[in-house]
Amino acid sequence: MMATIHQSSTKQDILQYLHKHIQATALELATALEISPQAIRRHLKDLEAEQLIVYSSVQVGMGRPQHVYKLSSKGSDRLRGEYADSYGEFAVSLLDALAETVGHDQVSTILKKQWQRKAQEYRERLGNGSLSDRVATLVELRKAEGYMAECHPTDTSNSRDRFIITEHNCAISNVAESFPSVCVHELEMFAAVLPDCTVERTHWIINGEHRCGYLVQARKNRLNE
């Protein structure tokens, strides 16, 4: 039983890595996940049989061609969750009905109110600790909600006061595609959750990028305290 659980976890790690990095060789996966190339190849073979990944052969130098693996559309759907699309379609349908009934401006107001509630919930969970602790807690909350979030300090002398939050999956992508204003309110939500910081969008899935990114930086007056 424990072997089955470990195998399932490793396969999930492979899918998540390919989602974040777009593509990878077996050796790159083995190195990143710290398991043997032989074990990686067994998992890749299983995932290929399940049609969750695909590969192409790429010639590198004078050696043998290497297999480069990517997620298939089925793999992407599996990673998002079997029911995510259905819930998203229901949410979009509901918002469309509201827009027809009360107008798009009112729908935008409703979405903004929802993000304000979310900001209040996050702030209560984050507490009043250091910026690094609050950002770490926020990332864990987002991760639990399906955003595949992670955070890294920036490469500066004040890295403890500057962070990049990256979200490799959008849990509300269906809604965001039909109602882009939800992303504006989401950015406002992050700023409300971290009122002593500026929050800027650096990447945006809706613009065709593979992730959403936010630069979180402590305000100058706080840095000088």
TrEMBL record:
Domain of life: Bacteria
Boundaries of every Helix-turn-helix type domain copy: 11-61
A Pfam family that the UniProt record links to this protein: HTH_11
SUPFAM superfamilies: Winged helix' DNA-binding domain (SSF46785)
UniProt name for this protein: Transcriptional regulator
Provenance organism: Chlorogloeopsis fritschii PCC 6912
